[in-house]
Amino acid sequence: LFSCGTSKEGESHLVEWNESEGAIKRTYSGFRKRSLGVVQFDTTRNRFLAAGDEFQIKFWDMDNMNMLTTVDADGGLPASPRLRFNKEGSLLAVTTSDNGIKILANSDGVRLLRMLEGRAMDKNRCPSEPISSKPLTINALGPASNVSAAIAPTLERPDRGPPAVSISSLGTIDGSRLVDVKPRVAEDVDKIKSWRIPDISDPSQIKALRLPDSIAASKVVRLIYTNSGLSLLALASNAVHKLWKWQRTERNPSGKATANVAPQLWQPPSGTLMTNDINESKPTEESAACIALSKNDSYVMSASGGKVSLFNMMTFKVMTMFMSPPPAATFLAFHPQDNNIIAIGMEDSSVQIYNVRVDEVKTKLKGHQNRITGLAFSPTLNALVSSGADAQLCMWSIDKWEKLKSRFIQAPAGRQSPLVGETKVQFHNDQTHLLVVHESQISVYDSKLECSRSWSPKDALPAPISSAIYSCDGLLVYAGFCDGAIGVFDAETLRFRCRIGPSAYIPTYAVSSNTAHPLVIAPHPSEPNQIALGMSDGAVHVVEPSDAELKWGGTPSQDNGPLPSNSSNPPLTGQPSEPR
To answer: Which residues are in the IFT140 first beta-propeller domain (predicted)?
Structure first.
């Protein structure tokens, strides 16, 4: 027997009773000292307790007074949300502050909801029965929206749960039998954690391919798909470029990059390696590397601490070199309207606007206090945004090259301010929202450089962020972490969709002391669910959802009807500019 409540003074309690003696057997800890509302709770599987408090859901193992974990359901909960498990313990309904209901699901719950959605969408099954007009949206921590009255009762089928036991009969049950009916703790702790986010940890759950490589391995510091989507270009820390090309075959008729077919590590007949100029006075491993690709994929601009080189992508030959260090170039971005104009971020914290055709620096922009680590153009805003290792953002007008505004990114709670370290930027397809990436956060800023939403490492993804980028359609954000994990987020809300563990895409991860992690993520230019990972051990992996899932985060397939958009921003087909 358990009870829960809140006193007039705001003190909340959750206790287990000894029914035969009428005394409190165990008091569970973890409530705030003065609750903002009346705390309510529920139990599941004869093992777990859940209560709504402090705008989140708190979980306990019945046999342990200390709190097991918490879930905020991606925000939007009232101070003391009401909640209720279904009988199987696979779904949890929780009230929201806007008078709605979110349905949380573990893996069993997701399968149940999919089954119910299939019934709801089958209009031929029972024409007289009211049917939800919208497809059911299933996410492990998101709301299962639009659950119609027709299917809601089936969630609580009386023949699925154990028979009810009266309170009076509990005192006569042998204690040893209670232990037998409880599931193993280790298994169910994992189940509770799965409420937090879908976790992909097995190679069978995704399609992953390590690209073949016969050239000496060195950590991958820059990675980019060609705009055609047929090839993948990597720049390693030793200043050597590697180009993989996919061929048209029966298994891959489009010839586009895929995890289903291994590409060829391509070199011209001469066997020439595309190698950057280096700075003899500084090891290449310590030099900042940067790369930019022309819109027609015919040439690439690149630097690894030495001069900036312009390569022919067909022959790998150097067409020209410029910008002798010091200072060295640290970031490159082509002007959106003129391929002859390049913005070059420098090690001395300046941004140089360079005209390749006349070999001339048009202007030099100064506003940062440390080296430039990111550049992004927006034709819509007629602006260039720069970011630096000083964790500062600067916006410049493209026509007069004047500074419009600047802002230091905010430190998340518990982090010392001001922040320092590489800060990367990328405009969304709408050209007004800006993705800002720092090891401490991924954030979205508006056209006035105001932060509208932010996410910081926590819970299932506690490690520092190494890289993050928009998907080509602008609906997802992919983030790489220093422990090897990949996080997939909704771009509009930064809601966490799923975690891809390193054991899923590195086959030997579990049986070796592999500590490799992605240093850079590249999005495919036309396949929004495909990414490439440039790793700290020199490997490059292409990763896609399994054929059964099609999309990240357990989104139902198109067979069940059209998918609702997760973003208010219109998707574009071109490849967005990439943060580095």
So the answer is: 301-410
